[in-house]
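note to self: the first set is below, dont mix up w the second
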Amino acid sequence: MERRKELLLLILILILVFFVSIWTGGGISNTNIFWNLRLPRSLLVILVGGNLAISGAILQGYFHNFLAEPHIIGISSGAALGATIYFILAGGTWEIDPLLTPWMSLLGAFFVLIILVFWNKKFKLNSQLILLGVSLNALLSSIISFLLFWNQKVFQGIYFWILGGFNGKGWRHLEITFFYSLIAIPWAFIWRDKFNILSLSEEEAYSLGLDVRKYETYLLILISLLIAPSVATSGIIGFIGLISPHIMRLWKTSDYKWLIPSSFLAGAIILTISDIVARNIFYPSELPIGIITSFLGVPFFIYLLMRSKND
């Protein structure tokens, strides 16, 4: 009952920031801007923020590493590389294709996840997972930069997309993200109990009747579905998957029955506020939202590192 009150509070805050997001900024009196830009954009921000937050919560439990997050361990960069390859193969456009762009991103994200899982199983070094992820992130970013260097005509558009943002996003981007979210979010909610067991060691999970290997492939698909379409439509937005689940853990509990819905709401709230700031701080220019989330996320990352050292 108590958790319901806290979830209700988060829902009310999300509704409040949603309306602030819609009604702040110029051009709101223009009906076309309101219906075709501002409204779909605000809904897209909520979905992307929620998806990234849930994926972070799942990754931290599955890899047994509290710093695991889509951007930090390179999954977002894998998804971005997949989308970048599509944009180049499509002839230099950076217009999103409803079918091919998300699928190329899914392949990129899934490929990185396979590497991380292989490393985790082979070397049993959970504490060094972040180092591998950071290295993968740097390598994939370099490959993207190299591809853009050889394809100058797509450079500018993709550059701003990679920085992360929602400028110019409309109903088409919302529909794509919504389609995959319609699969991934209910799936994550249904598996809340399993995530509690999957966050234990493989032996402990097996003793409780859950064969981790049986669910592993499905889990990787779920994580990819949460991350890749969000990256395909909105670029690389870091640290939402780190900040949101940890705040919810500190506030209440690590129980995934609480963590999945609360992380979704917290991620949606944080990203919506970040989007409001990104749109208005240098108005009429717009700051890429990935810069805002990095300013929030890096100090939080350092705080978690220092906290773990003291523990």
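second set (the one i keep forgetting abt)
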Amino acid sequence: MNTFLALSRKEMNQMTKEYKVVWLPIVYILLGLTQPIMMYFLPAILQSMGGVEGIIIDPTMAKPGGEEVLASTLNSQFDQLGIIILAIATMGIIQGEKANGMMAFILTRPVSISSYLNSKLLTHYVLAVLCITLGYAISFGYTTYLFTSVPITRALIALAFYCIWLLFVITFVAMISTFFNSSPFIALISIGVLFICRFCAGLHPFLDVMNPASNSLYATTILMTGDVETWYGFNIVVTLLLVLFMMAIMHHFIAKKKF
């Protein structure tokens, strides 16, 4: 336990030195701000551009509800730019210490691989959850101010489902970072696979149970309808099992010194 805490403190210090604890929250706050403001002012912007061929503004068009705007923050801003930024911020989670020899040095000490991996995953996951929560809270506030209010319970349940998807994202990027040594390649593979998962969410009920990205889809559905279906729980269990499986693969890979 002491080893785990010491490694977690080291990880936090490293993220502070890299200013990750500063720029990452700012980026997610800006992403959270963008969606409600853009949706609020978009008709006026298009109207002011007047004469843009092919674009017709219907003056009777109803303003979207707060639930729709907040849901679009999750599936447009966080699931697209947010995933790209998170993958880039996390791509060196294991690869960086493999490259400079720090991982080999740490593991020659009385440190278990589990403590090493858990400290990495937990600190990066906590930072990601804090950043998403900050951006989401800002988006929630502006959505309530500019559109209609969203029930707080519904918003919190949706955030909890989104954080399950986030746990898969962090663990997957860490696993790819364990396998490969090229940072751009790690980012490319991670973003590609995560985007495929997200695009496949909602295609088929069976795939949805097996697809971790369905948690993000469920989050937007909960925001829009307020309904939490019973099968959502199966997807959470499958996602957590996949996370444990990926951690076991990383543990085996490092134990066999295949890096």
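remember for set 2: The chain has a mean pLDDT of 90.
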